[in-house]
Amino acid sequence: MALLHRLLKCRRNAAAAAASASFLVLVLVFSVLLAATRHEHGDSPAIAAPSLLGEEEEPGAGCEAALRPLPDHAARCRYLSSPGRRPPCAPAGYVDYLRLFYCGFGRAPWLGGAALALWLLVLFYLLGDTASHYFCASLEGLSEALRLPPSIAGVTLLSLGNGAPDVLSSVVAFAAGGAESDAGDVGLSSVLGGALFVSTVVAGVVAIVAAGRRGDAAGVTIERRGFVRDVCFLLVALCYLVAVLLTGTVTVWAAASFLSLYAAYVLLVWTSHCCAAAAEEDEDLGDGSKKPAAHNSDLAAPLLLDGDAPSPLPVSCKATTPPPKTFSQRALDALHSPLYLPRRLTIPDIAAHRWSKRYAVASALLAPLLLAAISCPSSPAVLLAAAVAGAVLAGAAARATASAAPPETRCGRLPWLAGGFLMSVLWSYMLARELVALLVAIGLVAGVKASLLGATVLAWGNSLGDLVADVALAVHGGAAGAQMAVSGCYAGPAFNTVVGLGLSLTLAAGARYPRPYAIPADASAYEAAGFLAAALAWALVVLPARGMRLDRVLGVGLLVVYLGFLGVRLGSIRAWG
Question: Residue 72 and residue 106: Cα distance in Å, rounded?
Fold first, then answer.
């Protein structure tokens, strides 16, 4: 496991360096181009987009119908700069990407595409890093403070930590989606695309890697009960989702019932945990032994892996002086600070290996201000109240915490953990909102359906961490590591599908209550669901038939399923274009 942590830490350091360099390049490019944009287009007359249907456009025509008839980038820039532009072209995030592309990069679209791609990488990194560093750490601490059994913590708090980027991206997309927006398509297709990618590519690569390891003549055998339970639950959830999609609309009660499927799954895991523990206790009593009951490995949910997580091995309590940083490390820290400091100063963090009283006091002061600025930016009274609350909390934090170590008592840790959870959710929400808005803008600029980008680019970005972590587990973790990797390939997508889409649909339908919510599903959603069902059926048939051993037959078959999905999607691009 120590080797795995080093691999993950190296991976994140490389990602941090790439994201930081991309961020600095983008700051320079955007500063120059925004100044040029003001000079060139500041006094240009605004124009209205011509209608395809006469004087008034169809309400559901969308932004693409407004931009496509315009002859060139200058006309599109003038339209996007006009105060009366149609709502579908209004920015869904904090940055107006369409105006930036057509007004700032109109004469060099290749440079604009490169800038948007670099910013996409930065947002992917920030979203994943926020989840792994802060969100997961708070959830792990809450799990320990609430004294949850490992199996229950695994399928609740820890699964939420692993699936935070997917779940929040889906919630944000459905919140921004509507009759004139492609964002809802992004949310639906990204969750299904991510589940398909993890259940085929990640699971297939894990099976091939495990089968190719030397020294395992009999191969790696997967525990049958947990595997069948997770795959069957994902199949049931998928069938329920397809039934909801076929109706075209969903009420708040139907969406809540879909979300409640995960409560039934947690109850099933808890029952299995209790039955297994009771059986082991009876067996130990019958043998006359006094061995403590061990938790079944198949009950574990997807592992929560953090490259900076403390090693599970015992550590000395003596204070150690960290080695001096090299010049390259200091340069990397300086490069990374614009991406690191805003979150570090606003998210309470009491992880022992990252503890700093100065940052803790600063986060107590600034977190209420950020929360107020995001929720009620135009209310001076709310901002003033947040400033007063932050000052009080900062004073209390300065008096109640020590410089050497974070709070150790349960009552002392809970407020910090709850604050870290709340602020990491806020940051993840802001980043997910910006990521979805950027993908929708890229789809409009490139002439590609937003749902396709959600099923591929967004799904790949949110799932690459699973690929690296699960493959590392299969290579270096032995048979137990392969078992955990396979469990994560099915329990994780089950959580993202049921909780991510269930919560998104419930919130979207609740906002329109008592009217039903029209689900923004196109053919790509049904294609992803169909290929996902085929992949699950393949695994459910092949793995038991081959004695629950991971081999190349299973892995290659899963990869072929995903290649078939990509082939169908690429064919639909040509047909749509």
Answer: 9
With 70 as the cut, is the pLDDT of residue 318 above it?
Answer: no
Question: Running DSSP on this structure, what letter comes out for residue 94?
Answer: S
Q: Residue 338: is its pLDDT beyond 50?
A: yes
Token representation of residue 83: 């105060």
> What's the Rg (C-alpha) of the chain?
25
Give the Cα separation of 94 and 109 in Å (integer): 22
Q: Give the whole-angstrom CA distance, residue 116 versus residue 121.
A: 9
CA distance 433 to 430: 5
For the segment 533-577, what is each residue's pLDDT rounded down to a tens digit?
999 999 999 999 988 888 889 999 999 999 999 888 777 655 444
Q: Residue 306 belongs to what H/E stretch?
A: none
Q: What is the pLDDT of residues 500-511, one digit of tens each?
A: 888 888 888 888
Q: Do residues 195 and 455 touch, judged by C-beta distance below 8 A?
A: no
Please report which residue ranges of 156-251 form alpha helices under DSSP H: 157-176, 183-197, 203-211, 224-247
The answer to whether 499 and 167 are in contact (CB under 8 A) is yes
- Rounded (5°) CA angle 327-330-333: 150
User: Is residue 287 classed as helix, strand or coil in its secondary structure?
Assistant: helix
Q: Measured between alpha carbons, how far is 135 from 349 in angstroms, rounded to an integer?
A: 10
Residues 6+ apart with CB under 8 A from 227: 298, 486, 487, 490, 543, 548
Question: DSSP readout, 339-402?
Answer: HHHHHHTTS----GGG--HHHHHHHHHHHHHHHHHHH-TT-HHHHHHHHHHHHHHHHHHHHH--
First-to-last CA distance in the chain?
A: 48
**281 vs 264: CA distance, rounded Å:** 26
